Amino acid sequence: xxxxxxxxxxxxxxxxxxxxxxxxxxxxxxxxxxxxxHLADCLPLPPERDHIRPRIDLIVFMVNMQSKHSYSNIEASxxxxxxxxxxxxxxxxxxxxxxxxxxxxxxxxxxxxADLYCSPVLFCELECEKIRTATAQRLLRMLQICAGHVSxxxxxxxxxxxxxxxxxxxFLA
Length: 173
What we know:
Blueprint: E1 7-12, H1 16-29, E2 35-40, E3 58-64, H2 68-78, E4 90-95, H3 107-116, E5 121-124, H4 129-146, H5 155-168
Parallel strand pairs: 1-2, 1-3, 3-4, 4-5
Helix pairs in contact: 1-4
């Protein structure tokens, strides 16, 4: 099934600077796909705009590994997400894990959270432009799948494949 129209992505996280930089990197990488990105520091979104809010195809929870507040904010936001989104339309993006001496959130805590919600997790350093661009490209491809723009691949099957590949390998390899 092919879905027409713009794909929608929701970025949820407490670091507005990284959210904005990452959103700009995603928009820079879009070629044939029109996307809308909504930035939020937490969920739920304000209800007064529900009637005009477009469909959301993918929710990316950005966890800053150097901030316990970021992690607890994501934990609190997850309860506001409809259970159907956890069937392939949620992803965790963990930032700052490369500097192990500065992390406040254990890597295993993020992995357990992703496992609990049956969602993939990507680890990256958004400070580095090359890594930010590569991650934007990966998430853009995920968004295309979640929005139904890739025939023969569903969000659920893709999420299962990603989850399997993450479970089978080390993220630090």
